[in-house]
Amino acid sequence: MKALAPYFENAVHGLKGTKHVADIRNYGLAAGLTIEHAPGEPARRPYEIAMKMWELGFYVRYGADTIQLAPPFISERAEIDRLINALGETIPSVG
User: Residue 71 belongs to what domain range?
Assistant: First the structure.
């Protein structure tokens, strides 16, 4: 896990500048992304992101205006890449 944490950090922070991403923070293999809220519907985008990710085979937690990530400690780099790539495609696709 210790060796994977910097890789995960770089991957997650690679989402900086993605449409709707207001903030990114992490600690080890845990990360939170603040998602800009849709006008009048602050929790809609995180919910839609989580549901689209679920359809792609990924479980991400959501709450209020955030998406939370916590991959298993036994994850490999390729799994981190698939997760972050899917998230990077999904986030800008929500309304």
Answer: 4-93
